[in-house]
Amino acid sequence: RQPTIFHLGSRAVLKLLAMVDFKFPPLSKTFTESWGPPPHGEEDFAAKIGICDFVEHLDKFPLTKIGKICDFTASGQRWMQEKGKGGKGPKGFGKGKAGFVPVAPPKNDDEGFSLVDSRPLTSKGNGKGRGGASRSKGKGKGKDINYQEGILGQRPKLNAQKGDLKGKGKGRGGLQRRGLPSFREWSVQTKTEWEMKREIMLHSLAKLQLNANEVLYEDLMWCGTLHTYNRVYDRVTTKTEKRLARYEDLGFFNVTTSDDWHLQEMLTADPTVTVIATDHILACLIAAARSVYSWDVIISKVAGKIIIDKRNGSQIDFLSVNETAQDPPNVEDKDSYNGPVRLSQEASCINQNFSQMCLDREAGAKELDAGNPFDPDDGETQVASGAYRYRKITLPGNPKSEDEFEKSPLVMVVRTEVNARMPDEKGGKGLVSVKALNEYEPKPNYAWRSHLESQRGACLATELKNNSFKLGRWTAQAILSGCDTMKIGYLSRQTNNDPLNHTLLGVQTHMTDGFAEQIGLTRNNMFGILRAIIDMVMQWEDGKYLVLKDPTKSVLRLYEVPWDCFQSDDEDEEEHEEEEEQELDEDGNIAPQQPG
What's the rounded Cα separation, in Å, for the pair 430 and 486? Predict the structure, then answer.
């Protein structure tokens, strides 16, 4: 074949000759076995190898300036774009030089073509934050409110290795969520001398099963007052919303197991009873697999008897808010009324007030066996309405087990709570458990005032996703107390920045068994979890054990702790109360006792 001849102009020929005029550096004449510099610094090798000439002068040539590899990936282009926009300019753009114009990668059908566009590549986040290099379509709320975007409103540095910012809605996407601390505080600080007895993976709790049809129930005592539920609140809508009443003068009690003298008497009077507990504590163990935050439970074993207890002021006394949501409340600012601690206090107060607001006071209360067992009877404190139902629950044994205790039935006495009863309640049927969900930060695309009436199912599904642990606890409590109806109220703040005043937007009614099936909670699994934990502790020696939920992992750990552990807090409270009761003189000092 004849070679193809190209006719070039004079300038093109000169340019072509200049391009091909390149000489390779001389190679070693003796070292021909492989590529690279010769070994032991060959003398006749006169060529110099790049950066090796500057080893003695690295102080003048920092390593960050040497050997920078070009990154043509999408993340690399964004990194170069952010670097070129150093500083903060108007509308979120930097004042630095653009310097780098990203080019979109060509598709398969567009090979051979390149996009010519001088406009900068915008970020995908539509957040409300005012990021230094992204266009925010939402409203900037300042440094105090916008801590979700970063510390004091400053976005974390964009790292090319972590990918782009995928946050939507409020700008709380993957990068911000990884860069900011979440609610990861331990409810109890463990000590090195505590022996860890067992570590339970929470996903394994779903495999524990027990035949719930063989579970036996027996009522031992009813205490307190039981009013009728007012059906007027079932007709409340977003257009006829009602303001939530506040009952600050009423006394609400959540006494732990060891401080309930009724439970203590029932444990000692009946030799068949092995376990005493309350429905609040057992519900946490049942719904443990749904939890994210840290909480703890104390189990004491004495002479073959088990007391499932809690610490005073424990986390399980409060209700979490959006614990399992994709964007949970941030704990960066603990003084914020939208922080996890403040929101849990707000939710607990809302539930207490709503449980009293929805009662029909004019219909009168049903007479029970005894009054409120925790009434101080001092003539000053008015006790809130509500019934305590002491129930004996017998769990069947496992006939295939080799252990004698696991074969035999397990009898436990549980103090449960019933909030109200329906007007047609007969024979224990028609008992009501009243709970409340609260909205603290309505979103433009999702707010109860605009979606609760038209999309009730969607609102409930969202709450099941955001508050899985809380709803699981409520359902377990309703099953333990024998309430066949659950009334769930939807309450929202009157204004977004007012955590004290709330409005009732609607009430949904659910049958307990149907709601439990909807959230994936079965009675077989529920009692299987309780039986497995009790059987495990019964195999150990008498002692005090701490059940602790790891805030960073889906793990439940059991530690053996000293008997006097967690008692110092109670003693400090008692000493503080004694100091308050002592008489003071005019200067505020403790007055000396007068001789008798």
Answer: 10
